[in-house]
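Worked example

This section walks through a single chain of length 205. The input is the sequence exactly as stored; nothing has been trimmed or padded.
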Amino acid sequence: MINMAQMVILTLFSCLLIANAWAEDKNFGKTPPTTSEVIEHFKQPADTAPADTDDYQDVPESELQNVRGLRKISSTDKTTGKKVELPTTLAEKAISMEILFDYNSATLTEQAKTQLEPIGRALASGDLYGLHYRIEGHTDIVGSDDFNHDLSQRRAEAVKKYLTEHYAIPAASIQIEGKGKHDLADAANPTSEANRRVRIVSLGK
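Given that input, the structure is written out below as tokens.
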């Protein structure tokens, strides 16, 4: 059973994760980032542990499971003597871009391919070697849920296909997800073209 102190600690973890998730998401709109901007954004920071981890000693190991995207610090449970991994910071980072497709299509335009060039060079660089990614497709609210989900899935797949075929990025390192008209970038203007975007998330190694 989790006592009140443990619940407070886990709640604080959740708040920290949500705050960091927002802080690490960059939206470039229609203007593609440079290769160096992508590399700097996705590079893994050095792990640093806080000076004192005693506050976490009573958190059960079962509540501190490995979660993709979290950096860990090590501590030791004083009761059992077991090493415990404590999640500290979100390593998951993301960039969003309004990748240009043909109307109601998953076909990349020539401009879209130009937009993806610095992304491909960055993801294929030695600086980001070994990282895994999730490519998300997003749409505006026009159309049915099923149509938008399918379209966003196919667009994410088209981006993955282009990157893996033109920049020798391992296909196994990229997963895709169609978000459809959920998670709008501009919720105040749900039909805005800003919502028709592709989001690339670094999942760490």
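What to look for: The first strand starts at residue 25 and ends at 27.
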